[in-house]
């Protein structure tokens, strides 16, 4: 297993390298440059700027320089914000996005899994019907609608919570709720269908025929099987939630990475775009790797890296 | 001496959105200690539902409507879920058709076997439990029992898993073992081994067995009595030899004729024409009426009574009414 993980990490590095290359050339293929303004800059200034950031060199040379820096984990200076590096931005903004994402994911898992189980056990009962309606609404509403709704009701009308900004626990509640709505409903629905399938399987009948109580059948025999597909979606979902919080971050004026990303694209901030893309790919790849490892621990049928034996 | 199990006029129905399905319709039979009763019949004849009714594990939507299931002088049909779970696995154990899917894939064999002992024999220490599991695995003919306990179901073959299911079901020396098509999913050589194994274990533990199957070959190998089920009813019941040599019901004739034989011409099979009746429809007459080549006018309107011969051979068919005469 250890060997397998090493192999996967090596492979991940190759993937990140490919992503970096593609992003690099795509960025430079977009017409215009990082120093284009509404009022064109003085050509001498522009030339000096290009020289400072090595943008006057041939593209191939720039690419090699950049990749060497990336290999040294240096994502380069921002072209837009003077005297700040992309690494600074990630260090400053990522913890915010990460905290927001982790909280939202926790809410989704802690509420979603029991809700799914209840829904399955009381299929077509009132509990299930309420959950069905709720999850369908939450899955179909985009999170900016939920965010504005929360802001209007809790923030403006009832004045219970601060409408925006980041720092205090009260300020966290609304963005976390808005961000967790979709994963929460998704996990609930998935857990329910998975649980229903497992509960009607032969080994559950075997367990019942052994005299195992209903409670133990549900929480020992069924749960461990039913949770497997949920684990599969959780990794990419988590990566998505800490990177895709862009709209929610914008609405609540949270100084996270998502906001930086959109701005970087508008500003043609080459290094910022590339740096964040690489950073996000690393996050996504590692979350998938973690899911695979967790999966192998939970499901004995999966042996990592042993498919070629026998 | 009283019987181990007496099923009396058992009716189990499923309530679907199309109406009530009478899966088990006034079924009665008796079973002594150590006796093997085979219930045969085609798919959907109510064999499995009968056994699940005894276990109190009828699937969602199904319910025991009426009748008694007297097991050791107590009516299981009246027992609560909690009382039943004390009997399941201890007094009455069960093995199933498909050993590939009947064991939980995410727990080890040892864990799943130990569970039975943890529930029903709380006085045993961990060591004693372990010793008992190893002993039982040896009894069902598995090599390396210590190794097996640590393995997961997917690491074992179908025959091995069925042996494990049998070992698990016999851990508490149950008085009754219900085997629901235990050999159907296995290949023929393994089938024979499993039947032999069940017969040996029956002799050793004096366990009564209800064997549900549609394989008349398996029946001949192990059963004392046979009940033939059709459309939720037992249409004929007899000692195994009586049934094979002197079958009475036209359906049983059809079943025995349908058995492929060595001296038959290649590709020649003699199926019973037609299909089983729709259990959703209310019926008045004999359930086999549509398919029976001996059907009479009275069979259409009146459900046959049960006629019992002196040797205990019973049949539900108007041909055995005292007024019946063969017309040329």
Content of β-strand of chain A? under 5%
Number of DSSP strands of chain B? 12
Please compute the radius of gyration of chain B using only Cα atoms: 21 Å
Overall pLDDT score of chain A? 80
CATH class of chain A: Mainly Alpha
Per DSSP, the total helix count of chain A is: 12
Distance between the termini of chain B: 47 Å
Adjacency order of strands in the biggest sheet of chain B:
6-7-8-3-9-10-12-11
Let me know the CATH homologous superfamily of chain A. Answer: MetI-like
Give a quick account of the main beta sheet of chain B: strands, pairing sense, barrel closure: 8 strands, mixed
Main sheet overview of chain A: none
Radius of gyration of chain A: 24 Å
What are the low-pLDDT stretches of chain A, counting only 5+ consecutive residues below 50?
A: none
Mean pLDDT of chain B: 84
Based on the structure given, which CATH architecture of chain A is correct? Orthogonal Bundle
Order of helices and strands of chain A: HHHHHHHHHHHH
Count every helix of chain B, treating DSSP H or I runs of 4 or more residues as helices: 12
Shape of chain A: flat
Class per helix and strand makeup of chain B = alpha/beta
Q: What oligomeric state do the depicted chains represent?
A: heterodimer
What does it look like?
The complex is a heterodimer of chains A (310) and B (328). Chain A is built from twelve helices and no strands. Chain A has 310 residues and is mostly helical. Chain A has one domain (1-310): MetI-like fold. By secondary structure, chain B is of the alpha/beta class. Chain B is 34% helix and 23% strand. Chain B has helices at 47-55, 81-87, 99-102, 109-120, 126-139, 145-150, 158-170, 188-205, 216-222, 240-245, 250-258, 297-301, and strands at 5-16, 19-31, 36-40, 62-71, 74-75, 92-95, 176-180, 208-213, 225-230, 233-239, 307-308, 314-315. In chain B, the strands form two sheets. Chain B has an eight-stranded mixed beta sheet, sandwiched between helices. A four-stranded antiparallel beta sheet of chain B has the order 2-1-4-5. In chain B, a hairpin with a 2-residue loop joins β9 (225-230) and β10 (233-239). In chain B, α5 (126-139) packs across α7 and α7 runs parallel beside α8 (188-205). The longest helix of chain B has 18 residues, at 188-205. Chain B starts with a strand and ends in a 13-residue tail after the last strand. The chains are: A mainly alpha (310), B alpha/beta (328). The A-B interface holds A 201-203, 205-214, 221, 224-225, 298-301 and B 55, 57, 81, 85-90, 93-94, 96, 98, 101-108, 115-116, 119-120, 152, 154, 165, 168.
